[in-house]
Amino acid sequence: MKHPFRFVSIVLVLVFALVAQASAQLVLRYADGSPNRGTRAEALEYFASEVKRLSDGQMTVEIHWAGALLKYSAIMDGVVSGTVDMGTVLSAYNPRKLSALSIGDIPLATSDPWVGMRSMYELETTEQQLKDSLMNQGLVYVSNFTSTGVQFECTEGNEIRTVEDIKGKRMRASAVYGNVLGDLGANMVSMTYGDVYQALDSGLVDCLGSYFYTMRAYKTYEVISTVTRADWGQLMGFAIAMNQYTWEDMTDDQKDVIRQAGSSMVDHFAQLQIEEIEVAAKSLASGEWGPTIPVTAMDETERQKILDATTKYRDMWIKEATERGLDGQRIWDRYLALVQKYEQERDQDGYPWER
After folding, report:
1. CA 2 to chain centre
2. Distance (Å, rounded) from C-alpha 304 to C-alpha 298?
3. Which end of the chain is more exposed for a tag (fewer CB within 10 A), N or C?
4. Residues 6 or more apart in contact with residue 314 via CB below 8 angstroms
């Protein structure tokens, strides 16, 4: 005769095992302000899939897109308060609180996505003063995005070839780049990126300081006549951040998963962006997307004048960081050394996906 109590015991053991397994899973709620499309969205999904793979399914990242939970301007506070565990934060919305990230928004000569993000990743994960600065805000750095280099999209008769051409132009650009263009004589117009197509079409703006990947996403090639390839710096105060207490509650193995996934995403996103840049530049020039848009490289002498105009913003970052108790000059010098390190690695060995 079968023992009914034995059968019940087995069932209870299985139930408890399933409950224990479910309770061991860690679900991380993630807020992003953009729609689920384009190379950055693909990179963020890659990050989530890597977290799941590396943890054998015990950790998942639940992404909420397009500001469904929090708009970009509210994501930092949402992560700090625990409304979400993780999110995409931009230093431009909170430059003082996120001064540890805003170093990545200072234009450099390089606009290489892999060099830039890899330098930022190493700086933010190894420079204790920057880690402490973010921790004081209730945040932990996880990984980095990039805008890629700034280019100039202009309507007919408004092309920018020299610094002198910037004077008097009605322009839209982000963060420090907008400040520099204003210093060079542009009349800056403030608007969200969702409004730039109409602004170009109506003549509200003459030119954009923009990026190759946004030209396809926002179809601005339909309302412009020229693109000047300036390859001017890149916005990298653009990161994945985690709630400090969520981070501290995780095991060392779980933290390792997040670190590995964050590092892998840098390489993956860089590859996507570099490929997208070349596709966009060729498609514009060939007319593959519709109108033929000439893409002209800015003369190096003129490009250097724009880089020189950014020097005061570098000095401002160093000064303000020092006033907040950071060793601003040392951190800046280390950042430049990391950029040089990864430029040399790229030149000697190629990109990781080419090796």
Report:
1. 63
2. 10
3. N
4. 106, 332
Strand partners, 295: 227
pLDDT tens track for 167-213: 999 999 999 999 999 999 999 999 988 899 999 999 999 999 999 98
Residues near 62 by beta carbon (within 8 Å), at least 6 away in sequence: 27, 28, 29, 30
* CB neighbour list of residue 10: distance below 8 Å, 6 or more residues apart: none
Tell me the C-alpha distance between 155 and 203, whole Å.
Answer: 8
pTM: 0.90
The length of the chain in residues reads 355
Q: Burial-class residue 137 by CB neighbours within 10 Å (0-12, 13-18, 19+).
A: buried
Alpha helices in 29-84 (DSSP H): 39-54, 72-81
Is the pLDDT assigned to residue 21 strictly greater than 70? no
Residues in Cβ contact with 71 at an 8 Å cutoff, skipping those fewer than 6 apart = 33
Domains and their CATH numbers in the chain: 18-145+235-274 (3.40.190.170), 150-234+284-323 (3.40.190.170)
Assess whether pLDDT exceeds 60 at residue 345.
yes
